[in-house]
Amino acid sequence: MKKSLAFLILLFILLPSCFSAKQRLWSQNREEQQPEKKFMDEDVLFKKAYSSWLDGRPEDAAGTLKYIIFRTGDTKKSFKAISQLSIILSELGKPQEAIAYLTKAEIINSSNPYTHFEKGWNYLALEKYNAARTAFEKVLPLTVAPDLVAQTRFGIAMSEIELTGPASAIKNFQSVYHRFPYLISPASQMISKCFKKIKKDSTPSYSWIKPLNMTIKTFRL
């Protein structure tokens, strides 16, 4: 009787812990078998990011896309998330961060023209004109899409203003709108700015006259 009582006491003590361990193991196996229950599906996260962006919450959209990049092992999904994130970062005025992510995208797939295209515009925002032109020039051998080619050539012309001068850039802008008439308005605006820059650079500077006049007036007093 004493042995039976002792056994029942021991069973009473150990049973809850055994059950708890069994429950934890079952729960762990269930999570391993159904990972989608533990984490939100990545396709759902993409929709969430897009919805945030449409709602005017680009920071939230960027955060969701960064999370996808962090957690996914799928290079295609990672590339997609980086591509979308770089556009949002550009809109947020963060070209340096956008370039860092685009460099990762380039490692995944260097033959995608949009990666180099986005890189070019972000380098322009940072006033890194050589890097911008190099990025834009990588686009042209990778695509024949008319709109992308047109906007790439426009970006090259923008780079040339500082690299080879406004006169050379004018020729590039003229070439752009002759080949792609829908860009005539922005190209014309840039040509006008280039002519103003040429005129300004060729006009002698008389900035010393004003302080000289002030000095003369001072002495007269």
Write the layout of secondary structure elements.
Elements: H1 2-33, H2 35-38, H3 42-54, H4 58-71, H5 75-91, H6 95-108, H7 113-125, H8 129-139, H9 146-163, H10 166-179, H11 184-202, H12 209-220
Task: Report on the architecture of this protein.
- This protein is mostly helical.
- The protein contains 12 helices and no strands.
- The chain has helices at 2-33, 35-38, 42-54, 58-71, 75-91, 95-108, 113-125, 129-139, 146-163, 166-179, 184-202, 209-220.
- Helix 7 (113-125) runs antiparallel to helix 8 (129-139), helix 9 runs antiparallel to helix 10 and helix 10 (166-179) packs antiparallel against helix 11 (184-202).
- The model is unreliable at 5-38 and 205-221 (pLDDT under 50).
TL;DR of this structure?
With 221 residues, the chain is mostly helical.
Structural class: mainly alpha
Mean pLDDT: 80
Largest sheet: none
Global morphology = elongated
Low-confidence stretches: 5-38, 205-221
Radius of gyration: 31 Å
Contiguous helical run count: 12
One letter per element, helices H and strands E, the order comes to: HHHHHHHHHHHH
Fraction of residues in β-strands: under 5%
The beta-strand count equals: 0
Roughly how much helix do the residues carry, as a percent range? over 70%
Distance between the termini: 124 Å
